[in-house]
C-alpha cells in the first residue's frame, strides 16, 4: 500500500508539471556538451561509444550538429555530494551550450538519508545551468533508472522500485520548479525484466541497446530543438540571435558578451519591455500576454553601440 501511495504521488507530480514535458532542449551548433552524473552517465560495463551521451551526440551529428566538445564528469558509485565535490575540484567553465544531469541512485543504494537529496540535487542543477552560460533551455535532467527490475536488484524489487520512485518524484519536482526539461526514462529501465538485451554483462547496468532506447524517447517526444547557427561566431562578431521568429510564447536571445541592455517597442513606438542584461549570453522574454504584431528590439552594448531588429508575435 505504501508503494502505491508513493507511486500515486509520482504520477500526480508528472500530471501537475506537464509544461516541463512541453519544453524542448535548444541545441546550438557547434555543440559543447557537459554530462554530469554517475555510472549511468559514463556507461559502466559498456564501451564508451555505447554510452548515452556519445549516442546522443552521434544522433545529433546525423541531423547536422557537430560536436566541438564533449566532457563527462561522472563516476560509478557517486552520490550527489560526490558529484558536487568533483565539480568543485574540476571547476568546469561556463562555455558549454548543453548540460545534462542524472544522479541519485547511489544515494538510494548506499542508504543515505533522502532528506539530503533535494538540497544537493538543486545545487547540482543550479551549477548545470551556470555551466550552460545561464541558459536553462540548454539543460536537461534524466530520471533515475529502476535497478529493481534487474537480476541484481530482484531480491528487493518492490522496495527498491518504491524508493527510486520517491527519488524521482523529488528530481522531477525540482526540475519543474527550475523550468528545466525532464526525460522520464525509468519505464524503459523497467523493461529489462523481459528484455535481457537491455542489460550489460554485469546484469545491473544498461546495455548500449537500452541507452539507444533512451535516445529514441528523447527524440520521439520532440525533446530537442536544433538552432542551426554558429553562435560562437556571432558572439565574436558582436551580433545577436533571436528565435523563434515568429514567436508565440517566448522570445529567446543569444547575445554578445558586450550586451548590457535591451528595450522592446511595439509598432506604435511604446516601450513594452526594458531590462539591464549585464553581459548575459542568453535570456528569454515571456510574450504569452503580448498582442499579435510586429515588435522592434534595441540592444545596447558596453561601447554605447546599438543593435536593432524586429520580431513577429503570432
General description of the model:
The chain is α/β, with parallel strands linked by helices and 314 residues long. The chain folds into two domains: 2-227, SGNH hydrolase (Rossmann fold); 238-313, Immunoglobulin-like, CATH 2.60.40.3080. Helices cover 35% and strands 27% of the residues. The strands form four sheets. A five-stranded parallel β-sheet has the order 3-2-4-5-6, sandwiched between helices. Strands 11-10-13-14 form a four-stranded antiparallel β-sheet, with no helix packed on it. It has a three-stranded antiparallel β-sheet with strand order 8-9-12. Strand 8 (240-243) and strand 9 (250-255) form a beta hairpin. Helix 4 (52-62) crosses helix 10 (208-220), helix 5 packs parallel to helix 7 (117-131) and helix 7 crosses helix 8 (157-177). The chain starts with a helix and ends with a strand. The model is unreliable at 1-22 and 230-237 (pLDDT under 50).
